[in-house]
Q: What sequence folds into this?
């Protein structure tokens, strides 16, 4: 009878990850990103995925206005205080639903505007 081994994972700090990048630890063609301490392979984007990204970017720029920096593809380093965020609940919304960003509660975004 075979017994399953538990998989051990290690979370990396942003500083550790940046040191590995600076020292050339990864191949230039490796597409990696650090999310909550885990190094993940960035998968290639399809045309539909890119369309969704652009739609979300446009909707968020409209919702937040010019005082905010909306980043959809660029790297962003968040401090430790913003790590470990989580979801209190998950809700499925239809295309006619309207949502408000937590940081801009007066703004309204129609879910259909986020979908290709």
A:
């Amino acid at each position: 009878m075979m017994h399953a081994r538990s998989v051990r994972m290690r979370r990396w700090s942003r500083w550790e990850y940046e040191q590995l990048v600076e020292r050339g630890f990864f191949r230039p063609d490796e597409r990696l990103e650090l999310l909550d301490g885990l190094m993940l392979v960035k998968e290639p984007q399809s045309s539909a995925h890119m369309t969704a990204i652009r739609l979300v970017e446009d909707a968020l720029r409209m919702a937040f206005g010019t005082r905010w920096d909306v980043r959809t593809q660029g790297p962003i380093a968040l401090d430790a205080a913003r790590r470990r965020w989580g979801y209190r609940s998950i809700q499925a919304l239809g295309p006619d639903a309207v949502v408000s960003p937590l940081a801009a509660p007066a703004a309204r975004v129609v879910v259909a505007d986020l979908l290709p």
Summary: Residues 45-66+91-116 form one domain.
